[in-house]
Amino acid sequence: MNYPAHFVAFDLGATSGRTILATLHEDGRLETEEINRFPNAIMKVNGVSHWNIYSLYENIKDGLKGVARRGVLPVSVAVDTWGVDIACVAPDGSLFGLPVAYRDSRFCPANTAEFFEKVMSKRNLYGHTGIQTLDFNTVFQLYALRDTYPVKNAEKIGFVPDIISYLLSGNLITEYTIASTGALLDAKKRDFDPAILEAVGLDITKFGPIVAPGTQVGVLTPELCAETGLPALPVIAVGGHDTASAVAAIPAEGKDWAYLSSGTWSLMGVETEEPVVTDASFDYNMTNEGGVEHTIRLLKNITGMWVLEECLKCWKAEGVTYTYPQLVAMAAEAPAFKCFIDTDATCFVAPANMPKAIEEYCAATGQEAPKNHGEFVRCIFESLALKYRHVLNLFKEVAQAPISCLNVIGGGSRNALLNQFTASAINLPVVAGPAECTALGNILMQAKAAGYVSSLAELREVVRKNVKTETYQPEAPEAWDEPYSRFVEILGKA
User: Fold this and answer.
1) Do 173 and 272 belong together in one domain?
2) 199-202 contacts, C-beta under 8 A, 24 or more apart
3) Which structural domain range is residue 164 located in?
4) What whole-number percentage of the chain has pLDDT above 70?
5) 426: domain CATH number?
6) 11, 104, 242, 344: which one is catalytic?
7) What is the tens place of the pLDDT at every residue in 400-409?
8) Does 242 participate in catalysis according to the annotation?
9) pTM over cut 0.85
10) Same structural domain, 422 and 296
């Protein structure tokens, strides 16, 4: 192998994107440099919500030009993005306009209900796909768009990361992890489900072949090479869904661990070898998404720091702002276990006033509401820790797998107080960090594709060598048992 080895990752989120140049050294050191960062936002055109994929493509080209100016020769490039959204390719190879965004008003409960009534029941769809019901799942998008000109006349349909790889290389494939987000795949066969495609008026020929992460899609087109000054670099399909790339880079050892992608919204899950599609997983609204190296991400969505963020907005409007250390100090001084909320309750989805919504929830569940801002913060942190305990217990039941620690990644990995509460509540160590795993997973799957990394275990070993984590041990875990019993009772009341 030739060292140092350089890799280019395009990491595209729902609000921003960035180009990362990574350098892997022979001793296992991994260095990263952000070449450019650019906005990404949903744009409305004639009432329809779109992604400006052409703007993303231009920014990606700028990233490639920036790499060329560094004077290094990358081994490959790859892209990861958010899930579910698709774009249509016309017979002449061009795109049929801008991809419709998952927040479009047509992807709504009424559309989902119509699908279940006229096409396939909720339980039957879950039995095929193992994917939880969300109104913006690709299957419901395609049902809503089935009579639109782009879908009816598309030569091919691709998920967003696959479309960007298509723009880079001229070849269209369907990467497995991104396809798994849309409720179009047979969970066990890991391929398109013909019955589901037929239900939305499509057949398998409309999609590129499904490939595993680590597959070469093609090489940069001659036009791109001429414009950027780079040679025909391989374009690699990595974990195209950003969460798949993030989980790949969790610095864990062995298999007896769970993970929490913690931020405004949280995802808790375990890594399994096969999908878990049972009555219990259906009842608990768990979802089976594809991971790298033939793994499955058994996941459950949890509303995370959204509740606190909305409280802070309300307090700011009242003229009060806090630093994070101030919030921690306030919460630490507040009385423990005074009241709890279920952050996933519908009343917290989009209230006009979040503190008032918390007060009303406490009243409805027979609890004394927080009296000051410190008590609100403590209530939210303790409630999240107890919710994590509750969901972790569900995973132990459904996956029937031992769990010896919880790995926390994402922005929430920096929340030391919440991490400590969580460790004590679940009575397990919490390993926090890194805050950003997605680009690392993208980069190291490229490295694996090129032979620099031999396995998923070795990939995670590289991460462990290069990132700093913080371990939180349980403190007086028995003190959380009675509050947890109360919390479970409250879940039943709400």
Assistant:
1) no
2) 199/115, 199/119, 199/120, 199/139, 199/143, 200/119, 200/139, 200/142, 200/143, 200/146, 201/142, 201/146, 201/151, 201/152, 202/142, 202/151, 202/157
3) 5-240
4) 100
5) 3.30.420.40
6) 242
7) 888 999 999 9
8) yes
9) yes
10) yes
